[in-house]
Design brief:
The protein has about 230 residues and is of the alpha/beta class. The chain has two domains: about 150 residues, Rossmann fold (3-Layer(aba) Sandwich); about 60 residues. Helix content is about 30%, strand content about 25%. It has seven helices and eleven strands. The strands form two sheets. It has a six-stranded antiparallel β-sheet, covered by helices on one side. A five-stranded parallel β-sheet has the order 6-7-8-3-9, sandwiched between helices. Helix 4 packs across helix 5.
Length: about 230
């Protein structure tokens, strides 16, 4: 099976911080957990995978296609969704928050309503369509942010500390939803401080430490150097 996304000899610099990825391959329909200390570059790596950052050099391939210009990058970015650690929700209803991306993709009417309903059901928030997003609890807001990503049905879903601070009773609901995504054709990459989450999600661990990232499951060998 061909990798969904490949990074080769990537170098990204921001001020005094340099992130270099010698090789990273993400296989379709898998869950990857990225572990590392604060400041190790986990969020920067997610932004590179989301095609939101342009490296100084190297090669990026998505679905077998080399990404060169801005047109390719913008078009392919629609197949990738990044949920930030502190996701922004519109000051509007939950339905509006989920439907926004669908409207941009010209998904409307009954199909739009079905997709919103299915996504809310997946995260355990059935009947929340008319709730005001800014009035939600922290755990509810995180699940709405995940549902807003799921409704777009991305090929690659990137999550930055999605379960940090979740109540213990909510965590299993959240993780059951994530565990089901590979079976629906979505590759998932999660930056997390929860070292046990990889076992619970049957994921592949990528640990960032002292310039090396190694796939614990042996699917790929990845070298990542970070210098401040």
């Amino acid at each position: 099976m061909k990798p969904l996304l490949i990074l080769n000899d990537i170098r990204f610099r921001r001020d005094d911080f340099v992130l270099t990825v010698e090789q990273l391959e993400l296989q379709p329909g898998r869950i990857y957990l990225v572990h590392g200390p604060n400041g190790s570059g986990k969020s920067t790596l997610l932004h590179l995978l989301a095609l939101l950052l342009i490296p100084e050099g190297g090669e990026v391939r998505f679905a077998g296609r080399r990404i060169d210009g801005g047109v390719d990058r913008q078009r392919l970015r629609r197949q990738i969704t990044l949920v930030e650690q502190n996701p922004f929700l519109f000051d509007a209803s939950v339905y509006h928050n989920l439907a926004f991306g669908l409207r941009l993709r010209d998904v409307r009417g009954d199909l739009q309503r079905r997709r919103v309903t299915q996504a809310l059901h997946a995260v355990g928030l059935m009947g929340f369509e008319s709730r005001w997003a800014k009035a939600l609890s922290g755990g509810e807001a995180r699940r709405v942010a995940l549902a807003r990503a799921l409704v777009l049905r991305p090929k690659l879903l990137l999550l930055d500390e999605p379960t940090a601070g979740l109540d213990r009773e909510i965590l299993p609901i959240f993780e059951r939803c994530l565990a089901a995504l590979p079976g629906q054709g979505t590759t998932v990459v999660i930056a997390s401080h929860d070292a046990d989450q990889s076992r619970r999600l049957a994921g592949i661990t990528l640990g960032i430490d002292r310039g090396r990232v190694i796939s614990a499951a042996g699917d790929s060998f990845t070298q990542l150097k970070e210098n401040a």
